[in-house]
Amino acid sequence: MLASLGLILLCQLIGEAVVRGLGLPLPGPVLGLLLLLILLMARDRFALLARGPLRNDGVETASKGLLAHLSLLFVPAGVGVVQKLDLLASHGIAITLVLALSVVVTLLATVLTFRLVSRLLTQQDAR
């Protein structure tokens, strides 16, 4: 599990270094997660090509361990919110409107994506 956590953190470090080095307008951990996704997809593809058993290197186990304690990661965010209560009080209505609008846009995008994929799968099954 320690090696798997090391791989996750290494991908995050590489993503952070690339973002800072190139000045990309993207969070480094997001790029690191994309790198980890590519690595895991390549691992699965090579396992299928070799027709060998899929080696479980523990990344899944490590990620489940992180997800089990995900609530601990919200503590620093909660402290930050409490520290900025004056800012929230002065811009509370605008923040609430933006949050509500973003929820509606996210729901619409999810529904449209689901409908598009459903239609594509139905067409593929008809062939």
Automatic annotation (TrEMBL):
- Report how it sits in the membrane: Multi-pass membrane protein
Indicate whether Aminoacyl-tRNA synthetase appears among the record's keywords: no
**What superkingdom does the record give?**
Bacteria
The leader peptide range reads none
Among the entry's GO cellular component annotations, what is one?
plasma membrane
Q: Which ranges does the record mark as transmembrane?
A: 31-50, 62-81, 93-117
Main localization of the protein?
membrane
Pfam families, per this entry?
LrgA
Location of this chain's protein in the cell: Cell membrane
Q: Which UniProt keywords apply?
A: Cell membrane, Membrane, Transmembrane, Transmembrane helix
Name of the protein: CidA/LrgA family protein
Source organism of this protein record? Bradyrhizobium forestalis
Q: What is the lineage of its organism?
A: Bacteria, Pseudomonadati, Pseudomonadota, Alphaproteobacteria, Hyphomicrobiales
